[in-house]
């Protein structure tokens, strides 16, 4: 054994003391992080969605949405989206090492500042209730790359100077707030690093800086006092007097027919000058109006001829071929001629002209209009639903469509854009290639059919329940679907069930359907009392009843209305009340007899949704939980 050198002994002791200090520091910081998270949970998690946040669980491996650093154990990422969180995020200021903060689609109301999070790189706080001025301290976030504060209630001016000091900022989303002021940002900022920018739906004013003009017009729409490219409005400083000679003419130099009369009084002289000035102004106004009207007519004719020429020279069938483009041009009073309102995810088009030039094929005619599959030049494929039915006289049709366009969920078909005129409505949705649940259940029942297995059916039932539960709880708006059927459940690229045609019954004067298989009893009673059904009597509990009918379709393989007059719901209730038999289930499920308990459990969920009294039907969030439990039982 080597002798211990006193000098080495001192160095070793010093090293061990330093290591002990570092260990104690990280342990204390680690504990502070989780104490802050527990405080945050106690204040904002009123629905108890963060049930995994318990002192008995390891926060870094078991807590929902929490990611820790592998060495220090400090919290570096927090993702808590769509969890109905309500209140202030002030307790999170102690997470000094956090780099990724995502709390979008909640109901959070109070935002402290950015001073406590100097290491933030990604901030996603859209679709909340934050208010007040732009959070201070943004200049300290030198590593910030993406900032999304859209769809909140922020107001006041944005800190232009501080934003210019962030060299790595690539994304800035501030749309649909109440920000104001100018965008006179420094021309010297690192323009190359700025890739995504949107301030639409605010109160900004003044000229758009040149370096921001590279972004599309949709990044600036809704700011009525903004001007400059790419907007159509020209800034006042760029206009010139159309007739400077007339405007600068000295009235004393004007000649009059009665100059020979030397005895004209001063009052008569002023009267003549005033009349001449008014005449000149009226003449200028009339000429300006005529020029504007003629220019507008020429633009309409030019666009019409351009689209018609494209159609005549194209070998493919375009959307223009499917319906008259001139029909859209009839709405001459529209301020958004040949433009569309676009939402998140809208790519490849920004006006009606782009859609009409793309190749299209008709998918079919449904209860709310005709649908077309449209292939854009950028290889994206969308569905354009053309509605010509009489639109309801709603006070805020545009606001209602914007509400639908803001719905984003894995099990909801997203509305990407819309065009509304006096005579028709165009709705642009994502194209889902795998068809509807109705076709998968009832289509091609003959030889060669590939039946749906039990696991897939249960997955579709759970996905549809999640989509409808999200709709019913969205932003506390109490909106409902209104026409929930198996035909309105589409299957996406990943095999997820997505609900479509949301809330269209509120927009249209829908005729009474002869197929009442999906309608709740209270709606049938209304129809008997009044032939013109009032959609405002529709409630979320009516959606729950329709969902119960869809579950019966999944279980029995039968359509909502049988060949006779009895509905599917009444038929199942009679069979169950008489005597239980396997014959109530689809014969394609006969090979899954070991899953009979799960099928019976799902049938009980359907029967709970189909009770006659609306108040006794469960909420969709409860139905979703019941189906989730059945699926967990199946996977054991």
From TrEMBL:
The chain crosses the membrane at residues 268-292. It is found in: Membrane. This is Leucine-rich repeat receptor-like protein kinase. It comes from the Eukaryota. It comes from Nicotiana attenuata (Coyote tobacco). Residues 357-627 form the Protein kinase domain. GO terms for molecular function: ATP binding; protein kinase activity. GO terms for cellular component: membrane. Pfam families: LRR_1, LRR_8, LRRNT_2, PK_Tyr_Ser-Thr. Keywords: Leucine-rich repeat, Membrane, Repeat, Transmembrane, Transmembrane helix.
